[in-house]
Write a structure and sequence with these properties.
The complex is a heterodimer of chains A (228) and B (187).
Chain A: H1 3-79, H2 86-105, E1 113-120, E2 126-134, H3 140-147, E3 152-157, E4 162-168, E5 171-172, E6 179-187, E7 191-194, E8 209-216
Parallel strand pairs in A: 1-8
Antiparallel strand pairs in A: 1-2, 3-4, 4-5, 6-7, 6-8
Chain B: H1 5-29, H2 39-50, H3 52-69, H4 79-99, H5 108-138, H6 144-153, H7 155-186
Helix pairs in contact in B: 1-2, 1-3, 2-3, 2-4, 2-7, 3-4, 4-5, 5-6, 5-7
The chains are: A alpha+beta (228), B mainly alpha (187).
Chain lengths: 228, 187
């Protein structure tokens, strides 16, 4: 091969390399540009989604706040409703379910009270509800309605704004046998004491300890013969 | 001095408004003590000092207003029973003033009588409103057993009401009856 042939050959290889390299480069550049456009679009979508998520979270919190307010209103309504009305019986049953749903959904930042409640059915069955989450502002009547899932038989006295509890979970007071439900409050100094006020007047607070006991009472003094 | 009718009417209105205002204010202050209220005592005092008409007006206005503005909610259907029951305190106050007209100095025996009278009125008020409660709760299946059960179950609530009226009747009512005419004379 002559030297001219070599020069032409090398020139051809170089030109071919430049053409192939350029084509590959152009192809990658096109892909890069396309990916960049897609990326920009995705970033915009992501930002939009983040904004929408923020709005959704805010709306959800608003909704939970309204849910909470509705629950408070429902509990207050239950506390002053005539207990023999079907609406009371339905609402008191639903309150417990609604409250459990709220507890599952509530934001972590929501502060609720926690307390312990004992139900002693007088037949050896003792049920403790420990660390029960309750709404600040509830009284022990509302908490009892929630814990018993509406299984609280009560007579509402509008003149006194008080409830007389005549039964829990199907176990009712029996004056013939001097059997009745008693509510107890425990404090650090004097231990368990029968409540000196009506159940509607007992506020629930963080760390409070209450008990319901079903047992005989002295017919002369109406003092219970049992304790929690 | 004999005032013209318009002045006397204005005085009556002012008395009813003042008593009702004090009653509602004290009820709000004593909200947490559910069955302890100055309402009964002040209705009694109003009727004792200013007559049955003023006492009844105070009873109706204050009980009616409290039935609607109570922080525990509207009393509802039991309101007429509350108002009628409250009018009995006015009747008792007016009756007591007929027995002890001119009585303005507290005496232990008479103070006890006032306490007993108020406690008796509270007892009748409790019986009457509990009948109302039973009628509302069990209507239209109201039976004697339901009414009696409602009365029996309400005993624990009644006791606080009657005890507080007894104490207020012994200590608060005679003091107000003694002081109010003297204070109003200086106004």
């Amino acid at each position: 091969m002559t030297s001219r042939g070599i020069v032409y050959g090398m020139a051809s290889v170089i030109i071919a390399s430049v053409v192939i390299g350029g084509t590959v480069g152009a192809s990658y550049f096109t892909q890069y540009s396309r990916e960049r456009t897609v990326n920009t679009s995705l970033i915009l979508q992501l930002n939009d989604s983040a904004t929408r998520y923020g709005q959704l979270a805010s709306n959800f919190n608003d909704l939970l706040s309204s849910y909470n307010k509705t629950l408070s209103l429902l509990s207050r309504a239950i506390a002053v409703l005539n207990t023999s009305q079907p609406v009371y019986q339905e609402a008191s049953r639903q309150l417990s379910t609604l409250w459990q749903k709220y507890l599952a959904l509530k934001p972590a930042s929501t502060s609720l009270y926690k307390n312990d409640v004992l139900f002693d059915f007088g037949n050896g069955t003792r049920v403790w509800y420990n660390d029960t989450a309750v709404q600040p502002g509830w009284n022990f009547y509302v908490e009892s309605v929630v814990l018993t899932k509406g299984g609280l038989a009560a007579q509402w006295y509008p003149a006194y704004q008080e409830h007389f509890i005549s039964g829990i979970a199907g176990i009712t007071n029996d004056p013939g046998q001097n059997l009745a439900w008693f509510v107890w409050v425990r404090n650090s100094t004097s231990g368990w004491q029968t409540a000196s006020v009506g159940i509607d007047q007992i506020p629930v607070f963080n760390g409070s300890l209450f008990a319901w006991t079903y047992c005989k009472y002295d017919p002369n003094t109406y003092e219970p013969t049992c304790g929690p | 001095m004999d005032y013209p009718a318009s002045v006397r009417r204005a005085q009556s209105l002012a008395l009813v408004a003042t008593f009702s205002g004090v009653i509602l204010g004290s009820n709000l202050v004593l909200t947490d003590l559910l069955n302890v209220k100055l309402l009964d005592s002040l209705v009694f005092v109003a009727a004792f000092l200013y007559g049955f008409r003023i006492g009844t007006s105070v009873a109706v206005v204050s009980e009616l207003a409290w039935s609607f503005i109570s922080p525990y909610g509207i009393a509802g259907y039991v309101t007429p029973f509350l108002v009628i029951g409250e009018m009995m305190f006015a009747l008792a106050g007016w009756g007591a003033s007929k027995l002890w007209s001119g009585y303005l100095r507290p005496r232990p025996a008479k103070s006890l009588f006032f306490g007993a009278l108020l406690a008796t009125c509270a007892f009748i008020w409790d019986l009457e409103t509990n009948v109302g409660t039973a009628l509302i709760a069990f209507w239209p299946q109201v039976t004697i057993q339901n009414v009696l059960l409602t009365e029996l179950q309400g005993v624990s609530f009644m006791l606080f009401h009657e005890l507080s009226d007894l104490v207020l009747g012994v200590f608060f009512v005679p003091a107000v009856i003694f002081l109010l005419p003297r204070l109003s004379k200086n106004v």
